[in-house]
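Before relying on records like the one below, remember that each one covers exactly one chain. Contacts with other chains, cofactors or solvent are not represented anywhere in the record.
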Amino acid sequence: MTEMVYGSSPVRVAEPVLPRWWRTIDKWTLTAILVLFGIGLLLGLAASVPLAQRNELDPFYYVKRQAFFGGLGLGVMVMVSMMTPEMVRRLGVLGFVAAFTALALLPFLGTDFGKGAVRWFSLGFASFQPSEFLKPGFIVISAWLIAAASDLNGPPGRLISFGIAVTIVLLLALQPDFGQAMLILFGWGVIYFVAGAPMVLIATIMGLAGAGGFFAYNASEHFARRINGFLTSEVDPRSQIGYATNAIQEGGFFGVGVGEGQVKWTLPDAHTDFIIAVAAEEYGLVLVLVIIALYATITVRSLYRLTRERDPFTRLAGTGLACIFGVQAMINMGVAVRLLPAKGMTLPFVSYGGSSVIAAGITVGMLLAMTRSRPQSQMSDIFRRGR
């Protein structure tokens, strides 16, 4: 009787998690990530075998480890991408606190593995690099603070986030790790710029960063050596840059052939920082262009989808995550072709490394979560509502 008078409202059946995730995820970005991971395994089969032989290990020891950690990274990526922006924010804050604490403890408990920079914790069976996990957490917490600063009676989020960025940069400079320090500053600058920072302030911060680089050049022998090596007109053919440059030149357009490359036998970091040199030598410019196109697809499509997002935190965090992901790939490839000084930065999802691939999974998982299609989340909904 009540239903006859007042009518009845249909009961909404909740859509299962997986179908909803598949319907709302950016499938182009997801496909590009999976293809990059597949290319990383393919290149690992070529680049890591010489290293395994030098260490008297199973020929595919590092490939198996890459597949294991890559599987973990992809699993984490899928789980994180299923989260709401609010859940991503909580995860980012907790992850930032843990990674920042680990970064502060590096001078006391960390190791350099003979590379001259204390960046890792040795766990015996694996190593852990806190800066890799710090980046997505820092982007999320900075976006949260800067978005909150726009609210009525909001906190001074811009100032707080800048103070956090400066503290992180100082801790990274002590390792030293100037590449990750510059990436942190870049990520904060992108978020602040998108939030509406005045150009005068951006120019001032860039000037301060330049002054900091000049100070680091005069104070750090490690930093000065890398800058001098980049600026010199002659490249030592026995240096890592020399080997990488020669391999890229030898590869030409189509490469010398699968398994025929020589750089993997002479370059110590052929499976990590200079993996693109192996790709260029054995598969040529064709594969390199494919890799560049995949990174561009992930970055550009994510930024495009974020332009329709009306929530300030989601828009700022997603933009920061997309930009640091794309710029890290650009830096890695730029170093290999001598467009940038050596940074010691991995190529996401392609280079070997447990910390790198799992951190990349977290970063892209957060990005996929931010760019999912959600009801009443797009800018166009505001205009439809006003009609």
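The two ends are 37 Å apart (CA to CA).
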